[in-house]
From TrEMBL:
Keywords: Kinase, Transcription, Transcription regulation, Transferase. It comes from Williamsia herbipolensis. It comes from the Bacteria. InterPro entries: ANTAR, CheY-like_superfamily, GAF, GAF-like_dom_sf, GAF_ANTAR, WH-like_DNA-bd_sf. It holds the Pfam family ANTAR. This is GAF and ANTAR domain-containing protein. SUPFAM superfamilies: CheY-like (SSF52172), GAF domain-like (SSF55781). GO terms for molecular function: kinase activity; RNA binding. PROSITE patterns: ANTAR. Residues 161-222 form the ANTAR domain.
Amino acid sequence: MSPVAALPAQMADVARRLRSESKDTETILRAISASAVESIPGAEYASITLVTGKAAVESPVLIGDLARESDRLQAELREGPCIRSALHSDTVWIRDMTDEPRWPAFSAAAAELGIRSMLCFTLYVEGDNFGALNLHSTRVDAFDDDSRSIGALFAAHAAIAFSSVREKEQIRAALTNRDIIGQAKGMLMERYTLNSDEAFRLLARLSQDSNTKLADVALQVVDAGPGE
């Protein structure tokens, strides 16, 4: 059976696995990377590149040393297919790293490491934050039409799973922040004989004056304790 013919069952298995691993960001990213190597023909190594604020480049999960070195090079050189895919929502395909003119510095260094072909997919775009799935091979032209078709569908499933985890974490963070702000307000109300609105306005003023997030200011108040 060809890879494409087996695709429906394969993607169903991938979706089930990703759902079972959707505990937190690190867990889901590791599951996506490992599943990509197993599911996409030609992939030997994988990484996920996260770009925050169009500046900071992170690779929290990598499968294989070549993936680690590839992402390190791109972060240092500020160029390469992973960054392009993350920033511009493009699918990037490199057939032969020794004949890749788009990123000359990266291509030369990557070829020297032994990376011969790559395939990169956008995972998400959220404001100025971006994520890309990157696949690496030590063979020239390792990613054929089937690889690209399967990879695109896999990336779509992975993006949904990752988005779900991020939403859950954002909700948990929001609830945690609300509780911390509530605690800080209570402490300020008791310490300075303020009502609820006055305590909140004081927190907001401290946040504005110090250019610090409201939740972080509240946490500082809570950590400082009730005082005398």
